[in-house]
Design goal:
Strand content of chain B: 15-25%
CATH superfamily of chain B: Thiamin diphosphate (ThDP)-binding fold, Pyr/PP domains
CATH architecture of the largest domain in chain A: 3-Layer(aba) Sandwich
Strand content of chain A: 15-25%
Number of domains of chain A: 3
Largest interface: A-B, 19 and 20 residues
Structural class of chain B: alpha/beta
Structural class of chain A: alpha/beta
CATH class of chain B: Alpha Beta
Shape of chain B: globular
Helix content of chain A: 25-40%
Order of helices and strands of chain B: HEEHEHHEHEHEHEHEH
Strand order of the largest sheet of chain B: 2-1-3-4-6-5-8-7
Distance between the termini of chain B: 42 Å
Number of strands of chain B: 8
Number of strands of chain A: 20
Oligomer: heterodimer
Number of domains of chain B: 1
Radius of gyration of chain B: 21 Å
Number of helices of chain B: 9
């Protein structure tokens, strides 16, 4: 079409303002633009065709197939879908029944990797870091046999940005990392939240700060719930407590990531990553569809845009408001918690990940000792499952948070209570650090009025 | 050196650089040899331990500063070079050594290397290159050869390795050498030369991983295959020849100095001092420095 003599028309949503047409025009009909196109964040050129001789040179110069179109073609192009194809429909996921299989006995990171494969994830990007690496190793072994892709990136920074690229194409991608690596991924996660790109990050938390050690800790709760890079970011944070949940919640994570077009964080701890347990496989696996918004690299998805840049303040505020509304939808619909002996409890232990297992043991021991203890286990740390907690909060109830961090989980509780306008019940806690988990007897003794463990 | 307590002519014994910490590397690790060579090179250079800062990243080999009596910094994965630059800029009189593995230096830290080279602070960078991630138990490294089977490349790596020698030469390093613990005198001598070189000096040490490395590429194989560059008659002032030889990384095990700039460029530290001196002459008196921000320029 470019060799025909015709006056140009501009498609401002496709023009990137490269200016090649400006140089090509002998009559200075085309000028560099001054206004940002709100749909693209780019600055398209402007046309003033008073002196246009319809030479067609600008059409030849335009590197975009549909940036400048010959006059008359734009109307013709529209119905055939060449210029602005109609919005692409989502290709929905399909679920395929799995035959009944014998349970597996695998370590937590393996269970999580298997969950990702069953959720239809065929792209893995990661960087070795203890105690998460075995999950990556299993992906390296299995993905090539499943027509998938495994890439050992040069760093966590590279890995998360590969996921940004892969997720932008509408595909399911996974990484395994541990605390220092998670720190490096936060920048990329902020971009992905901003550009609404789904991905699943499994963080097998280890002791910090800094290099710390490779024992289990829960000290990335603050990062995952409150600090996903810069900007007003949130992601659903799932906290498994068993090998089975490593699989189930990783599968669920993909579902949520694509439902909300947002990264999802699976926060495990060093024990869960390394511990071997029995895992029952689900009844069905997922064959992923393709979301309509994807920049999939084909003709149908050509008009789509995945971007986190909004140069105009008003646009960026509107974008933030949209994201915040999405976070509120997540907060309403995605709270999950497990309750154990909680209904009649006078003392409610609050714990997640491996410490929840120790707290469960403490509940049993306390019940035997005649104390009505119960366990409240958030399965989603963000959003905090306040709706499940609220009915348990009757007068006289004490809450004891059991965690391997300096109050990061208790802070989530306090924030959730505050946002819900609930006066906090009497709060106490059992905290351990540095790869040490709270012991069952320690929890029992604290509940029975023992002193808080302090610095010797 | 204004801060030197050490008297000229006083000698330092290698054992004076040895700390009380016992290395926890696997028996047979090449890094033991690198450590010994470092003790000897530092003894030959003669600067006392308190005038030396030894920075590393994360990895098996990055434990090395702890085994010396110098100031040590076992820092952040991939960030040894930026941290070392900060230390050298803060305290230019220190002798700053940087060490790490191939993953630390060429993978996660690969982006820092060209800029450390072109900034040309007087640093010595010793990489213990074993073509594998040992600390995390045997994954692919940036110097792993194509086809290598590891736990993250069970069907063989699909990627070409980086060539640390050729890269650092291309980045413009003034001193590039290679050694192996299979040749202790040679390794000691290149490390010593690197320390003495004024400017960024790079030593790639082929230091085999006895646990996860290739069984056929251990010190015995090094001993059989290493070729001394001096023995080949290579002139270390010839940068292009050095690059041609460096291009054979992975095929030939050359030891010795590939390139030593016969006219070393001024170091960043020296240039900063020079510029400060220049500007000092033109500057406003200190009590009038805020006049720059006054409307009339302080007149």
């Amino acid at each position: 079409m470019a060799n025909r003599k015709a006056r140009p028309t501009l498609s401002p949503e496709i023009c990137k303002g490269c200016g090649r047409c400006i140089d090509a025009c002998a009559h200075h009909c085309i000028a560099a633009g001054t206004h940002v196109n709100p749909a693209t964040g780019l600055v398209p050129v402007t046309l003033d065709l008073e002196r246009c001789s319809a030479c067609g040179l600008c059409l030849e110069a335009c590197p975009e197939p549909y940036g400048l179109l010959p006059e008359g073609d734009e109307a013709a192009a529209e119905p055939t879908g060449q210029k602005r194809p109609p919005a692409v429909e989502d290709q929905p996921d399909t679920r395929v029944a799995l035959p009944a299989l014998r349970p597996l006995v695998v370590k937590g990171t393996y269970a999580s990797a298997i969950g990702a494969l069953l959720a239809g994830c065929r792209h893995f990007f990661g960087y070795p870091i203890t105690p998460s690496t075995e999950g990556a190793e299993l992906m390296a072994k299995l993905l090539p046999e499943l027509d998938g892709h495994f890439v050992q990136a040069v760093s966590e920074v590279a890995a998360i940005n590969m996921m940004y690229g892969c997720g932008g194409a509408g595909l399911r991608s996974l990484t395994f990392t541990s605390s220092p690596g998670f720190s490096l991924m936060l920048e990329g996660l902020s971009y992905m939240v901003g550009a609404e790109v789904p991905a699943v990050v499994v963080n097998v938390m280890r002791g910090g700060p800094g290099l710390g050690n490779i024992g289990p800790e829960q000290s990335d709760v603050k990062l995952a719930c409150r600090g996903l890079g810069h900007g007003n970011t949130h992601a659903i944070v799932l906290a498994p407590a068993t090998t089975q949940e490593m699989l189930d919640l990783t599968m669920l994570a993909f579902d949520l990531a694509f439902r909300y077009r947002n990264p999802v964080v699976v926060l495990a701890d060093g024990y869960l990553g390394q511990m071997t347990g029995k895992v029952t496989l689900p009844d069905e696996l997922v064959r992923p569809g393709l979301p309509g918004w994807a920049v999939h690299g084909d003709r149908e998805h050509r008009p789509n845009l995945v971007s986190s840049i909004q140069l105009s303040e008003a646009d960026l505020e509107a974008h933030n408001l949209r994201l915040i509304a999405k976070y509120e939808r997540m907060a309403r619909s995605e709270q999950r918690a497990e309750l154990y002996e909680a209904a009649d409890a006078d003392v409610l232990l609050l714990a997640c990940n491996t410490p929840a297992r120790l707290a469960k043991g403490a509940v049993r021991a306390l019940r035997e000792a005649g104390v009505r203890a119960g366990l409240f286990r958030p399965v989603t740390l963000w959003p905090f499952p306040i709706d499940a907690l609220r009915p348990l909060l009757r007068p006289g109830l004490r809450v004891v948070t059991v965690e391997a961090s300096h109050g990061q989980i208790e802070d989530e509780l306090r924030l959730a209570l505050s946002h819900a306008g609930i006066a906090p019940p009497p709060l106490a806690h059992v905290r351990r650090y540095g790869g040490v988990l709270p012991k069952e007897e320690e929890i029992v003794s604290r509940v029975l009025g023992g002193p808080e463990r302090g610095v010797a | 050196m204004t801060t030197a307590v050490h008297q000229a002519g006083q000698t330092m014994e290698p054992r004076e650089f040895k700390s009380d910490l016992k290395p926890i590397w696997c028996p047979g690790c090449g890094d033991f040899g690198v450590l010994q060579a470092l003790y000897r090179a530092l003894s030959a250079v003669g600067r006392p331990p308190h005038e030396i800062a030894f920075v590393s990243g994360i990895g098996c080999s990055s434990r090395i500063p702890g085994y010396t009596t110098a100031y040590g910094f076992n820092s952040v994965h991939g960030r040894a070079l930026p941290i070392a630059q900060g230390i050298k800029i803060a305290n230019p009189d220190l002798l700053v050594l940087v060490a790490g593995g191939d993953g630390d230096g060429f993978s996660i830290g690969g982006g820092h290397l060209p800029h450390a080279v072109r900034r040309n602070l007087d640093l010595t960078y010793v990489v213990m290159d074993n073509q594998i991630y040992g600390l995390t138990k045997g994954q692919l490294s940036p110097t792993s050869h194509r086809g290598l089977q590891t736990v993250t490349s069970g069907y063989g790596s699909l990627e070409e390795p980086v060539n640390p020698l050729l890269y650092t030469l291309a980045y413009g390093a003034g001193f590039v050498a290679q050694g192996t613990p299979a040749d202790m005198p040679g390794l000691t001598s290149v490390i010593e030369e690197a320390i003495r070189f004024p400017g960024f000096a790079f030593v790639n040490v082929q230091s085999p991983c006895v646990t996860f490395g290739e069984a056929e590429w251990q010190l015995k194989a090094h001993k059989a295959q290493m070729k001394s560059l001096a023995g080949l008659g290579h002139d270390p002032a010839d940068r292009l020849k050095a690059m041609a030889l460096a291009a054979q990384y992975g095929e030939e095990l050359y030891t010795g100095v590939f390139y030593r700039n016969p006219n070393p460029a001024p170091t960043y530290d020296a240039l900063v001092v020079e510029r400060q001196a220049e500007l000092r002459d033109q500057a406003l008196p200190r009590e009038r420095i805020l006049d720059l921000f006054r409307k009339d320029g302080g007149r």
